[in-house]
Amino acid sequence: MADKILIVEDEVRIARTLRLYLEQAGFSVTAVHDGLHALPAFRQERPSLVLLDLNLPGLDGLDVCRTLRREGNVPIIMVTARTEEMDRLIGLELGADDYVVKPFSPREVVARIRAVLRRTQGATSTADTVRAGDLLLDLAGRRAWLGDHLLLLTQSEFEILAVLVQHKERVLSRAQLLEAAQGIAHEEFARTIDQHIKNLRRKMKDAVGDVPIIQTIYGVGYRLDEVVLSP
Ligand code: CA
């Protein structure tokens, strides 16, 4: 069955172009043109991914994103006019999986949607758990426990953590993290990797306090070692 994409975009011309390209790429598409209609459309259509414009009339993209996150972990790609804006917003733990900056090429958007879907759906068939000491990941159920704490992670955060655990005690570059997560390497996503790592660290710290779990290897990338929580 075709993956369903929900487009939330007030510029009707852009929404129409995206729909055209996405349908040609084999997706099924629903589009709404303001924030207020986003949630009802989401609940009715249950899309595989939401492409969400930041600046919307009614309810802005930020509020829509927060509301969607309360409903579950559907992959979200934010659309914005400015890169700096997005760096700040991802920092606000929005939980978006990726973002694209206007003006964009529709082909690029299709490629990014495919990459996020591969990343978020790719691991579901490996019915197994992986462990790094006190950190346990259920790859089939897509749940992560740190000691007794269930971590509430977005799909991208889970995917990146899974790659780190599967290659524990090895340094992974951002490019390797991208590749292992089957994403498409591009500069903006490399920056979002850093942000996802930051969010992961904060969630782990909230759960168990200041235990160093993901190491930054300056100039190279990241490494995760065996996790040992003090009793
Ligand atoms: Ca807009």
SSE string: EHEHEHEHEHEEEEHEHHEE
**Order of strands in the sheet with most strands:** 2-1-3-4-5
Average pLDDT confidence is: 85
Total of DSSP H or I helical runs spanning 4+ residues: 8
Give the N-terminus to C-terminus distance in angstroms. Answer: 48 Å
Q: Tell me what portion of residues adopts beta-strand conformation.
A: 15-25%
Using only CA atoms, what is the Rg?
A: 18 Å
- The total beta strand count reads 12
What structural category arises from helix and sheet content? alpha/beta
What kind of oligomer do you see?
A: single chain
Main beta sheet: strand number and arrangement? 5 strands, parallel
Task: State the shape.
Answer: elongated
- Poorly predicted ranges (pLDDT <50, ≥5 residues)? 123-127
Give every kind of bound small molecule, once each: calcium ion
Helix content: 40-55%
Structure description:
There is one protein chain. With 231 residues, the protein is of the alpha/beta class. The chain has eight helices and twelve strands. It has helices spanning 12-24, 38-45, 61-71, 83-91, 106-121, 155-166, 174-180, 187-208; strands at 4-8, 28-32, 49-53, 76-80, 98-101, 129-132, 135-138, 143-146, 149-151, 172-173, 214-217, 221-224. A five-stranded parallel sheet has the order 2-1-3-4-5, sandwiched between helices. A hairpin with a 2-residue loop joins strand 8 (143-146) and strand 9 (149-151). The longest helix is centred in the last third of the chain and has 22 residues, at 187-208. The protein binds calcium ion (CA). Calcium ion binds at residues 10-11, 53, 55-56.
